[in-house]
Amino acid sequence: MKTIHVHIVSAEGEIFTGEATMVFAPAQMGEVGIAPQHAPLLTGLKPGGVRVQRQSEKGDQEELYFYVSGGVLEVQPKSVTVLADSAMRAKDLDEAAAEEARKRAEEMLKERTSAVEVATAQAELAAAAAQIHLLKKIKKSAQSR
Amino acid sequence: MAVGKEIRTQIKSIQNTQKITKAMEMVAASKMRKAQDRMEASRPYAEEIRTVIGHLRMANPDFKPPLLFAREEVKRVGYIIVSTDRGLCGGLNANMFRMLLKEIIDWQQQGVEVDLCLMGRKARQFFRRVNVNVVAAVTDLGDIPHVRDLIGTIQVMLDGYREGTLDRVFIAHNEFVNTMTQKPVVRTLIPVEVGDQEALQTHWDYIYEPGAMELLPGVLARYIESQVYRAAVENVSCEMAARMVAMKSATDNAGTLIDDLKLVYNKARQAAITQELSEIVGGAAAV
Fold this sequence. Notes:
The complex is a heterodimer. Chain A has 2 domains: 4-90, F0F1 ATP synthase delta/epsilon subunit, N-terminal (ATP Synthase, domain 1); 94-143. Chain A has one helix at 91-144, and strands at 4-10, 13-20, 22-27, 30-34, 41-45, 48-55, 61-68, 71-76, 79-84. The longest helix of chain A has 54 residues, at 91-144. Chain A is rod-shaped and about 115 Å long. Chain A is an alpha+beta fold. Chain B is built from 6 helices and 6 strands; from the N terminus they run ααβαβαβαβββα. The longest helix of chain B has 75 residues, at 212-286. Chain B is elongated. Chain A binds chain B through residues 7, 9-14, 27-29, 39-44, 71-72, 74-75, 81, 83, 85-89, 94-95, 97-102, 104-105, 107-109, 111-112, 115, and chain B through 38, 41-42, 44-46, 48-49, 52, 55-56, 117-118, 124, 128-129, 134-139, 146-148, 151-153, 155-156, 159, 204-210, 212, 214-215, 218-219, 222, 225-226, 229.
């Protein structure tokens, strides 16, 4: 039976590699089935399951499932590559993550101002302490007289 | 014997420190190997996506996605700075920050403003004291960085570029040359540079679904993410290598200290014995 080489990778590492007789993937425009000798195809993937049908070592058909949360599917006559996203993605999720990163930067800037505040407070404290010290000295000398 | 009590406690405490540095060295060594494996694992994805971008660019030469083309005028640049969360790794972070400071001052002298995206606690601590605009920060990535933790900072930079507030984005991280050497590098992240157009002069093309124009921006964003992820992972292996070397020299230094102190201790002990003997002999002679 003719087979096609399947390669499922994410940015964080390889997920699956091997030969398959048929691959199904949740493409943006609808689910696609890829058989060996498929024409070159490039498409985006929606979140969903990628099914890989292959002959097991015993000789009977088996089907493997891989969940992808999106990504890109690249097909060539002899190979299928799934570039899977390694994280859950959605426009608003990305925005939320961006917002969080921004917030952290702002917090940091706030800390920066608080560092300045601490410095001024320390300077004031030192000045006050010096004044008290001087007053005590004056008092002492007044008593001894 | 009361001789050299202080020296003995000192030796003991240095021995304890040595045990800790030795342990840290070994932990760093094993973590470094794992980080290198992860670096290796991220390579196929990056290579694959690079070829896909090459094809997409060939498919419609007229379409110019903003992420791919440099803007002539540079008014504001962005830096994503990858640093470590923890210290005790030699001059790893300090070297990079020093190089970056120089670059930032260069830009500012040209009248170009600088926005920073900070990754890692050390960058946060350092750039807090520098007069720059920090737009995003992420800390506590740990020894195993995840793409999902990085997306936020990348998105801030992508937004900035799309809105036209940023004209160029760089990424600064440490490059793993070998265990002994880590080199701070700054690379251009946006506009995306995809080299080797020659290699892609093929006669066939993909079927694009939907059009190549719709696919390209998403693929480019993923490419940038994979680059940032790789930088983060590479920085972890640099951190571990640097820590390993730093801890090894600390252990060696503790060893020399202990040897020196032992010599001093033995001399003092011997001197005390000699003195005691001569006192006894002197006493016996006097009787």
